[in-house]
Amino acid sequence: MQPAFYDRPVLEVARDLIGCVVRRGECSGVIVETEAYHDSEPACHAFGGLTPRTATLFGPPGAAYVYLSYGVHALLNAVCEPEGVGAAVLIRALMPLTGVELMAQRRGRSPQAQRELCSGPGKLSQALGISLADNRGDLLHGPVTFEPRPAQLGAPAVSTAPRIGITRATELPWRFCLSGSRFLSAPLPRR
DNA sequence: CATGGGATTGACT
DNA sequence: GTCAATCCCATGC
Q1: What stretches in chain A show pLDDT beneath 50?
Q2: How far is the C-alpha of A96 from the C-alpha of A116, rounded, in Å?
Q3: What is the rounded CA–CA span in Å between residue A91 and residue A49?
Q4: Any atom of strand B under 7 A from CB of A73?
Q5: What homologous superfamily is domain A3-146+154-178 in, according to CATH?
Q6: Contacts with A108 (C-beta within 8 Å, 6 or more apart), sequence order
Q7: What is the DSSP letter of A142?
Q8: Measured between alpha carbons, how far is A86 from A126 in angstroms, rounded to an integer?
């Protein structure tokens, strides 16, 4: 995925990432759920401006923004829009593709429980071995890399919904899901 | 320097 | 359905 891919409006990138592949080492998965965050709205960490914590968000596009949620989980984002704009796409769920055994081992689950391996932003980080050390990493060169959508998957049908787990700007439909996927972090709202 | 909130998960009732 | 774990970092004194 070239740097120019991320140097676009974050809503476009969030939608276009559905069906693409995230890889770290031997483990990889197809992105089935994303959320967009932008410094113009209060749910975004960058809303409060440039601080040591948000420096990655305001940095160049195509970097990984990894931060600790609830003191427990490392959450993976892709920094978007030009340098100076604080925006990123949160990766919320994957369909496991390769390295399933290692992912299951890291998650403390059976390899057969594929739906439990990456169906949540904290889960997929644990499965891929992503930590705060991956913050600010280059998504083109790794260790965490994003790859274009496999051609055999075809054009994905994408559904939109309100974002999950936030308390502000809950009205924005900035969650993007692969329609009908069984690997989402939570079901799509009815209708 | 002390405090409190948070883009979650899993265990338990 | 409820709730604790756990820690970074922004804010305020």
Answers
A1: none
A2: 10
A3: 22
A4: yes
A5: Methylpurine-DNA glycosylase (MPG) (3.10.300.10)
A6: none
A7: B
A8: 25
Contacts of A5 (CB under 8 A, 6+ apart): A13, A16, A62
Parallel/antiparallel/unpaired status of strands A73-79 and A144-147: unpaired
A19 SS3 class: coil
Asked if the Cβ of residue A174 lies within 7 A of any atom of strand B, the reply is no
Smallest Cα–Cα separation from A77: which of A43, A109, A51? A43
Find the nucleotide nearest A90 (Cα to C1′).
B7
Chain center to CA of A93: 7
| Domain limits, chain A | 3-146+154-178
Residue nearest to nucleotide B6 (CA to C1'): A70
Does pTM surpass 0.85?
yes
Pairing, β A175-178 against β A64-69: unpaired
Which pLDDT value is given to residue A7? Answer: 98
Place of tokens 């899901």: A177
Burial class (CB in 10 A: 0-12, 13-18, 19+), A158: middle
User: What per-residue confidence (pLDDT) applies to A87?
Assistant: 98
CB contact burial A51-81 (16+ within 10 A = b; e otherwise): eeebebbbbbbbbbbbbeeeeeebbbbbbbb
